[in-house]
């Protein structure tokens, strides 16, 4: 009887286990069905909200179909850039299309002419130079204050809560985009590249300063204690014990912010602050899409060139990332098909 009882108990235990497994599987399936239902509902809700938003903005399929040929025509114009205003030479000779670019490059004197006369409103080369100078100069002008606020914003330098006076200032500056800052300077300098430069300098204080603060929060304590033990004063401890550890990082961040500032300088031209942005806006206002495309082409060239140059300098500051190649070698690698295909 005891063996039969044990066998019955075992079968009962197995049945209970099987039932619990089935119940658990049903719970999992039910939870999965609920998640799928909620996911479908979420997708439907997002699509419905998007459709309502498009309707509110006046979007209709009929309007898209009606304007589609115009859209294709504009895209064709953008695909065929006109470099007639690349330099004064190409403008005077009425060289249209890519011929304006090639002939100007074959006459280097025309490039120098465009740079020296700084006709940023009509010359793409002049506008490009203005844009680059605005971005670089704005970074340099904003760097000292970015360093000042960045250092004093660190709790390792200024005790809490006084460091938040500097952190709060940088946060306030970052909260206002450069395209708004330029509106503060236009009453002083007018809608000129100077307004754009000071707007970028102000923006740099907030962005670069915060990066500097974060770097200082991560410095090691050993060098600071070593400098302090020599009887150094507070400024010497900060300079030799803290800033010496982050010098390379500070330069790398400054180069990175420079890349961003050159892009910002392009966008500030839209509000009349000079440079490529102003040239592109002027051409678009005249519906000269092919000429605007030439300006956009130069934007791409400038952004890629600045980024390549900056990345090479940053890699030199980090020996573990330095491949030993120069700037032109890095450009050459862009056209290496084997690298793109993963064969080298």
Describe, in plain words, how this protein is organized in 3D.
The structure is a single chain. By secondary structure, the chain is mainly alpha-helical. Helix content is 79%, strand content 0%. The chain has 15 helices and no strands. It has helices at 2-56, 61-79, 88-92, 98-106, 108-117, 124-152, 163-175, 178-189, 193-217, 221-229, 234-268, 276-285, 289-317, 327-333, 337-340. α9 (193-217) crosses α11 (234-268). The radius of gyration is 31 Å and the shape is flat.
Short descriptors:
15 helices; mainly alpha; 79% helix; 344 residues
Short description:
The chain is mainly alpha-helical and 344 residues long. Helix content is 79%, strand content 0%.
Please tell me how large the radius of gyration is. 31 Å
Uncertain spans, ≥5 residues at pLDDT below 50? none
Number of strands: 0
**DSSP helix count?**
15
Secondary structure: helix percent: over 70%
Gap between N and C termini: 78 Å
Main β sheet profile: none
Instruction: Summarize model confidence as the mean pLDDT.
Output: 79
Listing every helix as H and every strand as E from the N terminus to the C terminus, the arrangement reads HHHHHHHHHHHHHHH
- Strand content bin: under 5%
SSE topology sketch:
Blueprint: H1 2-56, H2 61-79, H3 88-92, H4 98-106, H5 108-117, H6 124-152, H7 163-175, H8 178-189, H9 193-217, H10 221-229, H11 234-268, H12 276-285, H13 289-317, H14 327-333, H15 337-340
Helix pairs in contact: 2-13, 5-6, 6-9, 6-11, 6-12, 7-9, 8-9, 9-11, 10-11, 11-13, 12-13
